[in-house]
Specification:
This protein is α+β, with helices and mostly antiparallel strands and about 1500 residues long. The chain has 33 helices and 77 strands. The strands form 15 sheets. Strands 22, 23, 25, 26, 27, 28, 30, 31 and 32 form a 9-stranded mixed beta sheet that branches. Strands 11-13-16-15-14-17-18-12 form an 8-stranded mixed beta sheet, with no helix packed on it. The longest helix is centred in the middle third of the chain and has 61 residues, at about 840-900.
Length: about 1500
């Protein structure tokens, strides 16, 4: 019987059942299965259109997969069944859906038709009516010692009969291990894996749990359960061993925990574990040999410097323990002290010992153990320990000392004025000590300070008194405090024992000035203050200003006397409007007015504790808030909007009303989540001048034609209506680039006309004439016009410039308040010209004739000389060409030899100590939020978010609403102010938020990609451009999606060849010279970073040593802290910095880069013989300088020989720096000199302290160089070209490097472009996304194979792999140098070209990076084509398998990021674009049904309140 009216019925049948679909009057569709003539079962109730009745005409589609249901105004297409909703057998059968059953072989819930071989065995497909799930009912044994192997007996109910052999799989987080299974009548038997194959148990744990499953060889798990491997030997004490949840026993004499007593505890006393089944004589921790506390408890107190014998109770079993020697061990500050001990009865007595420690802490805990049998400690289950304390460090005054806990027995020693135990206090002449115990009273209470020092004579002031010995408890001082003779009542809640008293003093009774000392009486002792407390009469004499806006915020300055009197000072306007006190002193107080309900005026009053004062000469008046009508700047005649430049200082005019009542107005501009302020100046009540703020931004990125539009507003006390004027005035602050003024073309410009013209760019974009000042010397050039590219001004008279420069005054252009251009020199003098051309005309003509004749004769002589000189030059050039030809031949021969000899496998030279993978969180952050080391999503301590938790939770629910999230993203993308950076940020934040809901995230991503594909096909852009650039949120989300899901594939498969490529590139580059300044190298894949000169160098081996503080990292055994004589391969042309890097790389080759010491923290020391040593520097006073060039020091410069010994020493611990300072100041050395006579050198002799440092390492005009000088001018280049070859001849070195690295590039490409490589299967995410792209192409009728190929290349290789190839530091903990980065960029470009479908015609002018791999790319393209084809031909991934994988990924990384912080960041965008978002939500039909706009408004309300 149904309790609702039924309005529609449709029926069908499946698997012998009749299924009826029933529509109801309240808008639901019921699914009912008819099981017999009189029995039916309702198994689903689906809402269609709640509140609207279902019409009678319901129809199935042709395949009976969907039923069409009609309500009053809409038609719904409902699935007849959806078995994928259920992921477990119990859930599948429990749904009682006649269409769905459990497919055992495929481990999924599906219709019978979708289950393989379902007819072969009834157990292959189990229906809800007839079948039961396959389950493991028991495993014998159910747990096992890790070091043993056993055959397990699995009892399995309802196991299908299979032809294939079964296997058992033991799966942990690290790996899966397989063993053969033997079928039995009621289950299977299988052996456990080899013990050496099992994973190790983590430090501090005693077991691990594996998933034990039974499966066919190729199929999924048929059934699974948990199985535990434990290891008893991980327990080191008897108590923990026998208390273990596993069957572990303790061998007393052998002092070990074992699972096999028969083997390991023969002839030994045994304590059996509580988990061991069966009778036992000694079972549980109560039988363990232990030490127990005596009457002192588990904490034994000993005063430092005193001697004491420690005793403890013991519980011992076995006579052999009693007969052994006992030792007491104390661990104090890491020092272990052993003392003999005696066993008397059941008590151990340790020998007497003086306890002492060196740290300055008040007490120290020392661990304690009793050892028997040489090295076997008795169990200490109660954590018995010794606390050593020093009374003098626990209290520094008598009162504090006597207030210490009684257990310490501390007292005050008057003779030493310290807190001590009694035996440490010296005795007096009569043999008595002057030691006060805690029951006595301190004799010297002292008052050190009190405040306030004045108060109103009406009283009521709380006075805080601070000092020492001010009573041990409140009763000591309750009635003994007097202020100027007047009793002061103390507050018990504010009393701090011995140190601080707060009391309330009453009025003296008369309104007269009174003063006196503060006295604290404690028993017979009395403490008195050094200064007097004063009862005074505060008075207000004046205040300013007298007016302020009704919104409040006015700073009122109050003048008077004794304004700081009392402990509680308050100010009011008209009694009920508070004025918050900001600062106060004797004669002045400043308060801030509160908002007023209207235009009112009232008396200014102040309350000093119980005393009230009022100013009655005039009132404070609230006036109307200021109103801003217009804000504008820039040239006249343009649109009236505020404009500015990054340098700031542009005058901005502001018009409105009520400006004269504002004290210190400011203008602000919001740029890139940062506020910039500038001051304003009030001209009148209606006019104000502001100056545009200085904005920190890159001037070069600003577009003069399209200025950046910024939000702006004003700060005028607390007036809100003048803030955020961008939205109210419907305009923005326009940010233009700084104007640029060009220098004079000639250094000295001659003043020829009445006006001076200065050229430039963007001169009047934001500026008008008054914003620019042109100074000529000390005079001003009057500006007459300012255009886009030119400024014209009238210079002052020469006398007004007052220039001291002989050539003339300097012209300086000032823009705003900080931008300055020095244009050049303006000369008022005329240029030197010949004034009188008519003088001596005849003489000039005659002289000219003589000159012509002489020139003719000289030409004849020169011609003859030139002919002979040309022949000589020709011979010279021929000789140089012969030399050049020989050198070119030698270089080509050397390059050919390198190409043949370097084609060796570099694997042996690469690291042998594992791959330093970054953890998942760091890896994801580097890709999602590059250059953000401490991003907000990694910050867990955010107390301000706790107040907004409810709002964020509701906003998170909205984000989990698909309709809302899609509308949210589409709304942001449709806004033209939604920048590219914001798109990337929003996408990353969404992915972080949905990290724990990857199934939902994938659904959103597919929807967005589908929209993007549809938009691309319908638009004008070519389909191949899809996913090429990150121009949408979906594209960045796709990158992040692959980032999350391919991390495991990187660690298990692709990471190794990528890391090998990086190490191979770095190793090959380091084999040859690398320029430390230009980062060019002899061995490079990049033409731009290739040294195109012949560099002489010699390989060397040095022996490096290092003494370094311990490095705390995961690999404890790989932390060299004191390493000596490690052979390091270097070059004699390496700089000192490069040598340090190579030494660190060799010594710490197995340590991640972030955990290594930095080269800048170490000095390189060359040691020769027993005492000779010198510190080597890149630059010092011995550096060779030629003209403007200084050469960086190398090993060759210092004449360091092969096999030399070098040491890396910490800078901060080096004593040599003192000698360097001494050398600089005294010009001499105090150390013996190093004997370098056997190393003939032009370098000077060094002191033992090292070569003297040069303070001015980079003087003006001095350029540093290492291997190659890079000249700024062509003339200089020509000067050095004589001894250089044609630079292109060195390009053959690219081939040598390429040939050496070819294997590693091939390995990486082969791994990436293989569906099954190195034992790892293709990640499901790749297959799933590629199938989605194929389906989208079919959906939109795209038949061009190249389009789909390009989509796949843009989605995965170009969006994910290229990023990692160029930046391996995103995956590994490594350091990537500039030259290695250039080489990897060439590999990445080759990778991109391999994925392309278009052929690029190459010629001699093509880039070398493309020519280098021109012959390899066609082969790589075949790999890509095969890779895409193999993926396409693989079986499709079911949604169930994909969702299972996504759910597992979500579970593994749920806690990696602070999703609340990510939600809060996303919420800022919802606030920023709230208006447009609200309109979209209100207009969308589905949003209206779900009331999403109302829910968003609820979020806003919660967030604003919280």
């Amino acid at each position: 019987m149904f309790n609702i009216r039924l309005t529609a019925v449709a029926a069908t049948s499946t698997s012998g059942y009749t299924v009826v679909f029933i529509g109801t009057a309240n808008g639901y569709l019921k699914k009912v299965v008819v099981e017999s003539a009189d029995t039916a079962n309702e198994y689903a109730n689906i809402p269609i259109k709640v509140g609207s009745l279902i019409n009678p005409d319901m129809h199935f589609d042709t395949h009976n997969l969907y039923i069409y249901v009609m309500s009053r105004n809409e038609v719904a297409k409902v699935k007849v069944y959806d078995c994928t909703d259920y992921t477990t057998c119990a859930g599948c059968l429990g749904a009682r859906d006649p269409y769905c059953g459990w497919c055992s072989l495929e481990n999924k819930c599906s219709p019978r038709s979708n289950c393989q071989d379902n007819a072969n065995d009834p157990l292959y497909w189990i229906s809800y009516k007839t079948g039961k799930c396959t389950t493991i009912t028991s495993v014998v044994p159910h747990q096992l010692q890790r070091t043993t192997a056993r055959t397990l007996e699995l009892i399995i109910d309802h196991l299908p009969q299979l032809k294939e052999n079964l296997i058992c799989a033991f799966t942990t987080e690290e790996k899966a291990l397989f063993t053969n299974a033997t079928k039995k009548r009621n289950g299977v038997n299988c052996t456990t894996p080899r013990t050496d194959m099992l994973p190790q148990i983590e430090q501090g744990k005693h077991h691990f749990t594996a998933k034990l499953s039974v499966r066919t060889k190729d199929g999924p798990d048929l059934v699974s359960t948990d199985f535990t491997f434990f290891d008893c030997s991980t327990h080191s004490s008897c108590t923990r061993c026998v208390s273990s949840e596993f069957p572990c026993d303790w061998c007393v004499e052998a002092h070990r925990c074992t699972h096999d007593t028969a083997e390991n505890c023969r002839n030994d006393i045994l304590v059996t574990g509580v988990s061991r089944i069966g009778p036992s004589y000694r079972s549980g921790p109560g039988f363990c040999p232990t030490i127990n506390a005596t009457g002192e408890g588990s904490e034994m107190l000993v005063a430092a410097g005193t001697s004491k014998s420690i005793k403890v109770k013991v519980h011992i079993i076995g006579q052999f323990i009693v007969q052994t020697r006992f030792v007491c061990q104390f661990n104090i500050e890491g020092r272990v002290t052993s003392l003999n001990a005696q066993l008397l009865g059941d008590t151990i007595y340790c020998d007497n010992m003086e306890f002492q420690y060196t740290s300055r802490s008040p007490n120290l805990t020392a661990t304690f153990a009793v050892i028997w049998g040489g090295s076997k400690p008795l169990d200490n289950p109660h954590d018995i320990h010794v606390v050593i304390y020093r009374c003098r460090d626990m209290a520094d005054s008598c009162g504090m000392c006597l207030a210490l806990a009684e257990k310490y027995n501390c007292g005050w020693c008057s003779s030493t004025i310290t807190c001590e135990v009694e035996e440490q206090c010296n005795k007096n002449n009569e043999g008595k000590t002057d030691w006060l115990n805690r029951m006595e009273t301190c004799p010297n209470p002292e008052i050190h300070s009190f405040y306030p020092q004045t108060g109103p004579w009406e009283g009521g002031t709380n006075i805080t008194i601070r000092g020492i010995n001010l009573g041990k408890n409140f009763t000591d001082i309750y009635s003994g405090i007097r202020i100027a003779g007047i009793s002061c009542m103390p507050f018990q809640q504010y009393y701090i024992h011995t140190k601080e008293i707060v009391c309330n003093v009453d009025s003296p009774g008369v309104q007269l000035y009174r003063n006196g000392r503060i006295v604290v009486q404690i028993g017979d002792y009395r403490g008195e203050s050094k200064e007097d407390y004063e009862f005074v009469d505060p008075k207000i004499t004046n205040f300013t200003p007298q007016y302020g806006p009704v919104s409040g915020g006015t700073h009122v300055r109050i003048i008077g006397k004794y304004l700081n009197a009392g402990s509680r000072i308050q100010a009011f306007v008209n009694d009920h409007l508070p004025c918050e006190i900001l600062s106060v002193d004797v004669t002045q107080a400043v308060c801030r007015t509160a908002p007023s309900p209207g235009i009112i005026e009232g008396r200014l009053k102040m309350l000093f504790d119980n005393g009230q004062r009022e100013f009655d000469e005039y009132n404070f008046k609230y006036v109307l808030d200021p109103i801003i009508e217009q804000v504008f700047s820039g040239p006249r005649g343009q649109l009236k909007v505020p404009r500015g430049i990054p340098a700031g200082g542009i005058e901005i005019s502001v018009t409105g009303t009520q400006f004269n009542y504002i004290q210190s107005p400011k203008m602000y501009v919001w740029h890139k989540n940062k506020i910039y302020y500038s001051q304003c100046k009030v001209e009148s009540a209606t006019n104000m001048i502001c100056y545009s703020p200085v904005i920190d931004t890159d001037n070069d990125v600003l577009d003069a034609e399209n200025p950046e539009l910024l939000e702006y507003g004003f700060l005028m006390d607390n007036v809100l209506q003048v803030q955020n004027l961008s939205s109210k005035h419907k305009n923005n602050f326009e940010l233009y680039p700084n104007p640029i003024y060009y220098n004079f073309e000639e250094h000295i410009k001659y003043y020829k006309s009445e006006y001076l013209t200065i050229n430039g760019r963007n001169l009047d974009r934001a500026c008008k004439e008054t914003d620019v000042v042109v100074r000529i010397g000390k005079g001003i050039c009057n500006i007459t016009s300012l255009s886009r590219q030119q400024l014209t001004c009238r210079p002052p008279l020469e006398s007004a410039t007052e220039s001291n420069n002989e050539s003339g005054p300097e012209v300086i252009v000032h823009v705003g308040q900080s931008l300055e251009y020095r244009i050049g020199i303006l000369s008022y003098a005329s240029p030197n010209m010949m004034h009188d051309l008519s003088k001596n005309v005849l003489l000039f003509i005659g002289g000219g004739t003589v000159v012509i004749v002489m020139i003719f004769v000289a030409l004849l002589v020169a011609y003859k000389k030139k002919t002979s000189e040309s022949n000589r030059v020709l011979r010279n050039m021929q000789e140089q060409m012969d030399i050049l030809e020989l050198r070119v031949a030698a270089e080509c021969k050397e390059a050919f030899a390198e190409l043949q000899t370097e084609m060796t496998d570099l694997t042996g030279d690469l690291t042998s100590g594992g791959i330093p993978f970054l953890d998942y969180r760091t890896y994801a952050m580097k890709i999602l939020f590059p250059n953000h080391e401490d991003h907000i999503v990694l910050q867990w301590e955010r107390p301000e978010l706790l107040r907004k938790e409810k709002g964020l939770r509701l906003f998170g629910q909205l984000i989990m609403n698909k309709n809302f999230l899609l509308l949210f993203i589409r709304t942001l993308e449709s806004n033209r102010y939604f920048s590219m950076r914001e798109r990337v940020n929003v996408a990353s934040l969404i992915m972080v938020t949905l990290q724990s809901k990857l199934e939902y995230c994938t659904d959103i991503l597919k929807t967005l990609l589908g929209d993007l594909i549809e938009k691309c096909i319908e638009g004008k852009s070519h389909p191949k451009l899809l996913l090429r650039r990150t121009e949408s949120v979906a594209e960045k989300m796709l990158s992040a999606w692959f980032t999350f899901l391919l991390y495991k594939f990187l660690k298990e498969c692709a990471g190794e060849p990528l890391y090998m490529l990086f190490r191979a590139v770095k190793g090959q580059v380091d084999k040859g010279p690398v320029d430390a300044c230009t980062h060019e190298a002899r061995y490079s894949l990049s033409e731009e970073k290739l040294i195109r000169q012949l560099i002489d160098f010699r390989p060397m081996t040095v022996y490096a040593s290092i003494i370094q503080q311990p490095i705390f990292c995961n690999s404890i055994d790989m932390m060299p802290t004191h390493t000596e004589n490690v052979p390091v391969k270097v070059l004699d042309c390496d700089t000192i910095g490069q040598v340090k890097e190579k030494c660190l790389d060799t010594i710490y080759r197995n340590i991640p880069w972030s955990q290594r010491p930095r080269k800048d923290d170490l000095d390189l020391e060359w040691r020769t013989g027993a005492s000779g040593r010198v510190i080597l520097y890149d630059e010092d006073t011995t550096s060779k300088t030629e003209c403007e060039w200084k050469k960086i020091n190398t090993l060759q410069h210092y004449n360091v020989p092969d096999s030399a010994g070098l040491s890396l020493v910490p800078k901060q611990s080096s004593n040599y720096n003192f000698s360097i300072l001494s050398d600089r100041n005294e010009k001499c050395h105090k150390y013996e000199t190093l004997n370098l006579s056997k190393y003939t050198s032009s370098s000077p002799t060094f002191s033992r302290a090292g070569s003297p440092l040069n303070n001015d390492l980079h003087e003006d005009g001095v350029k540093c160089w290492h291997l190659v000088k890079h000249h700024d001018s062509d003339i200089q280049k020509e000067g050095e070209r004589v001894n250089k070859l044609v630079s292109e001849i060195y390009l053959t070195r690219l081939l040598a490097t390429k040939g050496t690295l070819q294997k590693f590039v091939d390995d990486l490409f082969e791994t990436i472009f293989s569906t099954a490589h190195r034992g790892s299967a293709l990640p499901l995410a790749i297959k799933y996304m590629f199938d989605f792209l194929d389906d989208q192409a079919i959906l939109h009728g795209i038949t061009d194979h190249e389009v789909v190929h390009t989509w796949k290349s843009n989605s995965l290789p170009l969006r994910f792999w290229v990023n990692l190839i160029k930046n391996p530091n995103f995956v590994f903990d490594i350091h990537k140098s500039n030259i290695v980065d250039s080489c990897l960029s060439v590999v990445a470009q080759t990778f991109m070209d391999s994925c392309s479908t278009s052929d690029h015609r190459l010629g001699k002018d093509s880039p070398s990076s493309k020519l280098l791999y021109a012959k390899d790319i066609p082969e790589y393209r075949k790999w890509v084509e095969r890779y895409y084809r193999d993926i396409r031909e693989m079986p499709s991934i079911s949604d169930q398998d994909m969702n299972a994988m996504l759910a597992e990924e979500s579970r593994l990384h749920t806690t990696e990021f602070n999703t609340n912080c990510a939600l809060h960041e996303l919420y800022t965008y919802a606030v920023k674009y709230n208006e447009q978002l609200t309109v979209t939500l209100e207009e969308d039909e589905f949003s209206q049904k779900q009331r999403l706009a109302f829910k968003l408004e609820q979020v806003h309300n919660m967030m604003s309140v919280e």
